[in-house]
Each structure stands twice: as structure tokens, then as C-alpha cells.
Amino acid sequence: MVATTDQWISDRTGIKQRRIAAEGEVTSDMAVVAARQALAMAGCRAEDLDMIIVATVSADMPLPSCAVLVQAKLGAVRAFAFDVSAACAGSLFGLSIADQFIRAGQAKRVLVIGAELLSRLVDWTDRNTCVLFGDAAGAMVVGPTPDAKRGLMSTHLHSDGSAAGILTIPGGGSQYPQSEEVLSKNMHKIAMNGREIYKFAIRVLPPAILEALDANGFRVDDIDHIVSHQANARIVESVLERLGVPLEKCWMNLERYGNTSSASLPISLDEANRAGRLKEGDLIAMMAIGAGMTWGSALMRW
Ligand SMILES: CC(C)(COP(=O)(O)OP(=O)(O)OC[C@H]1O[C@@H](n2cnc3c(N)ncnc32)[C@H](O)[C@@H]1OP(=O)(O)O)[C@@H](O)C(=O)NCCC(=O)NCCS
């Protein structure tokens, strides 16, 4: 479809495979599959949920939110539901919102989902982007713990809107509403300056991790695992090298899924857990970065 090679893609990004949603499958369908698995693992019924947050930039439709569609499909009748738009950092932003509601006593069972169907938003004639993104969903059930030594310790969120232009879908909103021109110029598809994102990511992610450690009185060596958004293997390697964290401490799955945007953080956490990598008491540092730019970190005692 485009002038590229498997060699170029794997050398520059670490990606070997990507998943594409079935025809007719929509974002909320994928979100519900992930949500059911998370609910089963948490031993929680959909009816017991207080709140559903779906982090997505590729919802089923502009209105209403993906989260209310998920709520209806799950039968989570008590929950209020809304979407979070923070691109690839969306699940981290969602987790932070869940944490604040739980700490404030406003919610006890929160479902945080990252779900993206970006294959319908990439320009399949643009080799800069179409080789990177895959479709996926991941979900987490978040709740209070009586054990003060375990759970989410803090989240640290950041945004820099002055860098908004480096990763956009410019058409289809109030600035460039759908029109023949928007369609003919592919303005309804993802446009990206990959090199600028790369530089931005390796500049801001190490301080975000250090900020999380400082806030809780830990040092880099105390980290047992890094759970990172999977955008590009070289970004992760470079960030860990700057921090002085061995790469073996980071769960990598980019080679199988590509960049799955907001889905990548919950999927990585789940895979590391199911693989038996996370032991009770382990210190987990999470980091994510996405369009906006948006980025942040979280620290958790497993
Ligand atoms: C996209 C990315 C892999 C490109 O790697 P890079 O080393 O920065 O490469 P450049 O963008 O400088 O491009 C180098 C050349 O490769 C070409 N190229 C881009 N995509 C290509 C592809 N799929 N196949 C072959 N060549 C490609 C470019 O056109 C450019 O050619 P030119 O020099 O003739 O113009 C890298 O910048 C990246 O991963 N950035 C982060 C993107 C990201 O994570 N986005 C999501 C944020 S959450």
C-alpha cells in the first residue's frame, strides 16, 4: 500500500504486528470485551460500578460518548459515564480521575477503559503513520484499599498545548467541519510529525518518573517494574537509559500490537500481571505520552 519494508518498521519502531478490528466492530465493542475481563478478574458485577471512564480519541461517533455506549452494553445501570480525551495518555488521565473520585469518597468501583480503533483514522497512503497504530482495548477496575501500603500512591499529569500541532486530526471539528475539501485533503485522518514527538517524549518522560518517585520518597533503584505506553521501542529504551533503569524492568509488547494509544497502558499492566511478573509489594512506575501534548506518570504498590 505504501513504500515501506518490514525491516524499516521493525528497526525504527520495534513493531512487528498490529491488530485491525473486524469490519462492523466498533470501539465500544472492543471496550466491552476488555471491561468484562477486568470485571471478572476484580470479582465485580457491572451493576456494582459507580463510574465508567473511557479514554479514547476514536469513539464510535462524535456524540454521545463511547462511555455511555459501553455502560448500556454492560448493563452498568448505576454508573455515570464519560469519555476522556488525552490521546495516548488517556488511560493515565482516566486512572488519575478515578483515583481522585475514590479518595474523595465519591466512588467505590470505577471502570477505566482505554479503547482505540485508529485503523479507521489513519491515512493508509501515509507511510509516516499507517505502519504505527493498531486497534485494541484494555480495562482496569479501580477501588479503595484498606491496606495503606498498597495501591496507587500518586498520579502526575501534564499538558503542553503549544505543541498541539505535532499530532492532529485537523478536520471534522468546529475549525474544519466535514466538507468535500476536508475529505479530499485527508484532513479527517491522523497527521504527525514523528521526529518532534520522539524528541518531546524523551525530554519530558524521565522528569515525569522522577517527579512520581520524589513525591513518594523513592529512588530510581526502588522501581521494580515500569509499565509504559508503547509508542516506539526506541523511545522507551532512551527514556529508561536516561533514568538508569534496566530495560528488563519494562513490559514490552509493542512488537505484537503497535501503538494502541490509550489501550496500551492497561494492556501492558494486564499482560505483566497475567505473566506473573508483578509480585505483591512490587513498586510499579507508569508513564504515558500522547497528542496534545499530554503526558504523565503514576506510582503504585502492587
Ligand atoms: C515515526 C518514526 C518511527 C520515524 O522515525 P525517524 O527515525 O524519526 O524517521 P524520520 O521521520 O526522520 O524519517 C526518515 C525517513 O524515513 C521515511 N519514512 C517514514 N516512514 C517510513 C516508512 N514506514 N517506511 C519507510 N520509510 C519511511 C521518511 O519519509 C523519511 O524519508 P526522507 O528522509 O526521504 O524524508 C519516529 O519518529 C517515531 O516513532 N516517532 C514517534 C511517533 C509516535 O510515537 N507517535 C505517537 C505518539 S503517542
TrEMBL record:
It catalyses: malonyl-[ACP] + acetyl-CoA + H(+) = 3-oxobutanoyl-[ACP] + CO2 + CoA. Residues 82-161 form the Beta-ketoacyl-[acyl-carrier-protein] synthase III N-terminal domain. Pfam families: ACP_syn_III, ACP_syn_III_C. Signal peptide: none annotated. Residues 230-234 are annotated as: ACP-binding. The active site is at C88, H229, N259. Residues 213-302 form the Beta-ketoacyl-[acyl-carrier-protein] synthase III C-terminal domain. Its main location: cytoplasm. Homodimer. Belongs to the thiolase-like superfamily. FabH family. Catalyzes the condensation reaction of fatty acid synthesis by the addition to an acyl acceptor of two carbons from malonyl-ACP. Catalyzes the first condensation reaction which initiates fatty acid synthesis and may therefore play a role in governing the total rate of fatty acid production. Possesses both acetoacetyl-ACP synthase and acetyl transacylase activities. Its substrate specificity determines the biosynthesis of branched-chain and/or straight-chain of fatty acids. This is Beta-ketoacyl-[acyl-carrier-protein] synthase III. It comes from Methylocapsa palsarum. The lineage of its organism: Bacteria, Pseudomonadati, Pseudomonadota, Alphaproteobacteria, Hyphomicrobiales. The gene is fabH.
